[in-house]
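The pair is quoted verbatim below.
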Amino acid sequence: MAVIWNPSIRKSVDIPMPNMINNQQYMTHVRFGVRPDTLDPMIVLMRFNWDYLYSVDTVPWLVEVFTLSSRTWRRALCSSSNVLHGHGILFHDKSQVVIGRYIYWLGIYDVDKTVFSFDMVTEECTRVILPDCIKWVDPLGLSVTSISKLRDSLIVIDSNDGEDIEVWVMEPGVARSFTKLYNFKTPDVMHTFLGFRNNGAAIIEIQILDDGYDNKGSVVVYDRHLEHFNPIGLCGLGWSFEAHFYKETLLLL
């Protein structure tokens, strides 16, 4: 069961989820957005059979969509897309960003980091190719890559060591090219990039050492104009902080 909840009007809708399976054989991912031309909330469910990950056959992801107006699940048009065929396709659970008609999320295609996008209007699934300098997958797991948005632009945050951070913006247009906005160095290892304030200041969780243990984190705000980190008084278990975008609306009324 999923719940679409609008806290502004204190109303929610229960959505039955079809065949939600997460085990050693199946991997399931759920995305959510609001179609901008109809203001219709949409849930996108993607499911893949692990048995075919290294198979000689290319079996696509099964993609289903639910719209609040129809109150039914159906197979998405992109289920036959070549983007979702192939080997080594992995999605990151907590990397969703919605900008306009597109839902973006981070993943791996073959051996490269990439950004996937789902068009809520045409139901087309595509890949956004990252610059060569940041699409490499670190086999040691030391690199940190995440996506966010700044105003109406897709942002990719990348670091090879968790301390030297690069901030890239996707330029508007069909080409979907990236330009590096700026880079900065954190006072300690970055656990999680949480997002941006309205003024563009970056919000991140960094590692703090407590009695020699490195599994605690502190949330700080980085002002690139002043080149200053400002702790905001939030500390806790490392990698436990999350921040999400919101927009006030009367949807579900």
Remarks:
- The chain has a mean pLDDT of 85.
- Residues 1-129 form one domain.
- The longest strand covers residues 213-223.
- Residues 85 and 96 are 21 Å apart (CA to CA).
